[in-house]
Specification:
By secondary structure, this protein is of the alpha/beta class. It has helices spanning 2-16, 38-49, 64-67, 71-79, 94-101, 117-131, 149-158, 178-187, 219-225, 233-236, 265-283; strands at residues 27-32, 53-58, 84-89, 106-111, 138-142, 165-169, 190-194, 205-208, 242-244. It has two domains: 2-115 and 272-283, Rossmann fold (3-Layer(aba) Sandwich); 117-268, Rossmann fold. The chain binds N-carbamoyl-L-aspartate.
């Protein structure tokens, strides 16, 4: 993680200078079998800023997977066309299946409610840039901690640093899964589970999440929980707390927060491109 942060800082200069031709002649594949705007375009931008050509497959319904092809076969085929593969897929565990057969570098861009490692890495970079450190960070995570894959991955990464602590704000139905809390327990990481935003405002970072509509079987349950937590400017205006969100937001951060200097979620998006440039360079042995 420290190495990635360092390469990302170098990449900032490349990005600000308009990119380079590091990957001229390379072809990268972006496979997005689940809706995405930010992550897909962020990878696309990162690849193109480094001079690569990009081939894309969008939407499960338009792909051979829909005809019944296995993930293994799809990946084996696409490895013949490309020098690296990025994949988002609705099934938890699909990234492991794909990576097991990939003969080119493979990046998980979100496997259902599983994990979203590149989002977590850009979140780590954002925390480092906004707060100047990762050691000692107290983070509050709010919202859909059950289905929100970004908070799972971020917990595992931030948990690698010294003296970090977590305040987890969610309704009982959307609590952080056991796979994450048992990791906290094993590592002796301090965490508390509460039900109101107000109990989570004494942190360095507040990380808001969207309630993941597409993971609910019961629409009425989603409707009941979707706007349980709304962060307003009054919550954070005079506090030294950095506000983050992986986006898209669907109402859980009031737009009156946007103008505050501690609203970091749009800076977080920019960091995503630079982090992905760094990751591609590292995976292909260029950094
Ligand atoms: C997140 C995702 O896809 O998990 N978005 C993103 O990658 N920026 C968060 C979300 O969809 O709520």
């Amino acid at each position: 993680m420290d190495a990635i942060l360092k390469v990302t800082e170098d990449m900032e200069k490349v990005y600000s200078a308009g990119g380079n031709e590091m990957f001229k002649g390379k072809v990268f594949a972006n496979l997005f079998y689940e809706p995405s705007t930010r992550t897909r375009l962020s990878f696309d931008a990162a690849m193109k800023h480094l001079g690569a050509s990009v081939i894309t497959a969008d939407g499960l319904q338009f792909s051979s997977l829909y005809k019944g092809e296995t993930i293994e076969d799809t990946i084996t085929v696409i490895c013949q066309y490309s020098d690296a593969i990025v994949m988002r897929h609705p099934e938890q565990g699909s990234a492991d299946t794909a990576a097991a057969v990939a003969t080119v570098p493979f990046i998980n861009a979100g496997d259902g409610p599983g994990q979203h490692p590149t989002q977590a890495i850009l979140d780590m970079y954002t925390i480092f840039k906004e707060r100047g450190t990762l050691d000692g960070i107290h983070i509050t995570m709010v919202g859909d901690l059950k289905y929100g894959r970004t908070v799972h991955s971020l917990s595992f990464l931030l948990g690698l640093y010294k003296d970090v602590s977590f305040t987890l704000v969610s309704p009982p139905e959307l609590k952080m899964p056991e796979k994450v809390t048992s990791f906290f327990d094993e590592k002796g990481i301090a965490y508390t589970e509460v039900e109101s935003i107000e109990e989570g405002l004494d942190s360095d970072v507040i990380y808001m999440t969207r309630v993941q509509k597409e993971r609910f079987e019961d629409e009425a349950e989603y409707e009941r929980l979707k706007l349980k937590y709304i962060l307003k400017a009054d919550h954070v205006r005079d506090r030294d707390i950095t506000v983050m969100h992986p986006l898209p937001r669907v109402g859980e951060i009031d737009t009156d927060v946007d103008a505050l200097p501690n609203a970091a979620y749009f800076r977080q998006v920019r960091n995503g491109v630079v982090v992905r440039m760094a990751l591609l360079a590292m995976l292909l042995g260029k950094a």
